[in-house]
Design brief:
The complex is a heterodimer. By secondary structure, chain A is mostly helical. Chain A has helices at about 1-10, 20-30, 40-70, 75-85, 95-100, 105-130, 135-140, 150-160, 160-185, 190-200, 205-240. Chain A has one domain (about 20-235): MetI-like (MetI-like fold, Orthogonal Bundle). In chain B, the strands form two sheets. In chain B, strands 6-7-8-3-9-10 form a six-stranded mixed β-sheet, with helices on both faces. Chain B has a four-stranded antiparallel β-sheet with strand order 2-1-4-5, with helices on one face.
């Protein structure tokens, strides 16, 4: 950060081409104290609400699909390559389809978010379930667990560590998809992506970088302090930590 | 040589009936009958077990020994209902075995405890599946923990337990549901010698106390002779019963006593002969080929480990 500031001053970049950290923080402060028309806090809440709804849908769909793909081999063989292919498609590429199908609406944003993330949840859940050691299933059956209870009390808990990892991965996909969708699909209720776009329209490069910084911070915070902690707790419980 | 109960009245020697049953209460259940069981495996249909005809009395401790690949574990999996026989039937107390069930509990070489549950919850699992009410569950779990001498370890997580403790919890988990039959598939193979001896003693005590029928698979002759009422030696390729041996020594046994050592010596010699026979046959069938040397080398450690 200091190097960036020093380099800026030494090279003498134009502030409208490359901002200095000090400019970025000024812009950040301005947005936080509502000195501009872009309310950062409000935008964060709008985006967070969309993320919550979209990610929830994505978890439900992804879990269901992952379970079906794991349980029925023909579904996996039929759909697996398709989903793997679609997974390589950057999520913003769903935006034009979303606009044509749903118009400029909340549903369009949700559509992009869900499609951008639920394959990841499904595929990593399927892989996690596949990796469950067969001894657990055998032990469960031996102890009288069958049908639904074999799945809910043995297979799913056994897959829990990979379940958490699949959610973690799904979240990062969901967050990226949401930002992309908001950047293009501009709605009345303004999310972070919208603010980023507006900053560009106003050629306010400090603000552009500031909003990007906020996006990174939110994504990282959820990942490091949400999922990573959960993951560590699960791993401790299962005795999967390196130090054991 | 198949059925231990088929002694002839003319025999001058004491009948080879259950020698140790006299000082133990008769077991009301756990009589197992295998009737001409065949099992094939793989795409080429290799015969894993051929014409296994066997009956185990209620409360009997039967140990299967034999070289690797003789189908010992397959036999247990058949009785457990994890796999079904291609021919023949298995009956437990007159009931046809058809799929896994809580009347046949199993202890595996890997304990297979559930790492998301603590020790007590692992033991409780089978009772939960059987819809036993919570108060009774707690009592039975506590009793099971006492039985395996871990009364205060219920709250421990699986990875906090030593190998021997894990196997004790696995035994408790299997016995707490009060099965008619306890199946043990090389349960102590991964443990060190000291822990194994301690667990042999404990298992003997548990067996004397609960009077379960136990089917135990091992490749260790010493282990077999220490524990068994009857040792069944299996042939390899295809797996079938080669010989049965009644171990007419009272329980609990002195594992280091001369009687145990003598029987171990005899059984070991027979099994080595069996391993050599298999090697010879393989060498003949791949005469001169490089594969025979490779296979024979593979089997070397089996004989030396016995």
């Amino acid at each position: 950060m200091a190097l960036w500031e020093v380099a800026y001053r030494l090279v003498g970049w134009k502030p409208w081409l490359v901002p200095a950290p000090s400019h970025v923080f000024e812009a950040l402060a301005a947005m936080l104290t509502a000195q501009t028309q872009f309310l950062l806090i409000g935008a964060v809440f709008v985006s967070a609400a969309r993320l919550a709804v979209g990610f929830a849908v994505s978890i439900v769909l992804g879990t269901a699909l992952g379970l079906v793909m794991w349980r029925f081999k023909f579904v996996d063989e039929l759909l697996g390559p398709v989903f793997l292919g679609l997974q390589t498609l950057p999520s913003v590429c769903w935006v034009p389809l979303a606009i044509l199908t749903f118009g400029l609406s909340e549903r369009g944003i949700l559509f992009v978010l869900v499609l951008g993330s639920f394959f990841a949840v499904a595929i990593s859940l399927r892989d996690g379930l596949r990796a469950v050691p067969p001894i657990y299933r055998k032990a469960g059956q031996m102890l009288g667990a069958r049908g639904w209870r074999l799945y809910s009390q043995v297979i799913l808990p056994a897959a829990f560590p990979s379940l958490v990892s699949s959610l973690r991965q799904g979240f990062s996909f969901a967050w990226r998809s949401l930002m992309g969708a908001e950047l293009i699909l501009m709605l009345e209720s303004r999310g972070l992506g919208f603010i980023l776009h507006q900053a560009r329209e106003f050629a306010d490069i400090a603000q552009v970088v500031a909003v990007m910084l906020v996006m990174v911070l939110i994504g990282m915070t959820v990942d490091r302090f949400g999922f990573a902690l959960l993951e560590r707790r699960v791993h401790t419980r299962f005795g999967l930590n390196e130090d054991h | 040589m198949n059925d231990a109960g088929s002694e002839t009245p003319s025999s001058p020697s004491p009948p080879p009936a259950k020698p140790s049953a006299s000082h133990r209460p008769p077991a009301p259940r756990g009589r197992l009958v295998l009737d001409h069981v065949h099992k094939r495996f793989g795409i080429d249909g290799t015969l894993a077990l051929s014409d296994i005809d066997l009956s185990c009395e209620a409360g009997e401790f039967v140990v299967f020994v034999g070289p690797s690949g003789c189908g010992k574990s397959t036999l247990l999996n058949l009785v457990a209902g994890m796999v079904s026989p291609d021919q023949g039937t298995i009956h437990l107390d007159g009931q046809l075995v058809n799929g896994p069930g809580p009347d046949r509990a199993m202890v595996f070489q890997e304990p297979g405890l559930f790492p998301w549950l603590n020790a007590a919850q692992n033991i409780e699992f089978g009772l939960k599946m059987a819809n036993v009410d919570p108060a009774e569950r707690a009592d039975r779990v506590a009793a099971a923990l006492r039985m395996v001498r871990l009364p205060h370890s219920g709250k421990r997580l699986v990875h906090e337990l030593s190998g021997g403790m894990r196997q004790r919890i696995a035994i408790a988990r299997a016995l707490v549901v009060d099965p008619a039959l306890l199946l043990m598939d090389e349960p102590f193979a991964a443990l060190d010698a000291q822990t194994r001896t301690i667990l042999h003693q404990e298992l003997q005590e548990i067996w004397c106390g609960t009077n379960k029928t136990i089917l135990f698979v091992t490749h260790s002759v010493g282990e077999a002779v220490r524990l068994a009422d009857r040792v069944i030696m299996l042939h390899t390729n295809p797996g079938r019963i080669r010989r049965e041996l009644l171990i007419d020594l009272p329980h609990p046994r002195n594992f280091d006593g001369p009687e145990v050592s003598e029987i171990v010596r005899v059984v070991r010699a027979e099994i080595e002969e069996e391993v050599n026979r298999v090697d010879r046959e393989l060498a003949e069938s791949h005469a001169g080929g490089a594969a025979s040397g490779h296979l024979a080398a593979d089997r070397g450690p089996v004989g030396s480990r016995l």
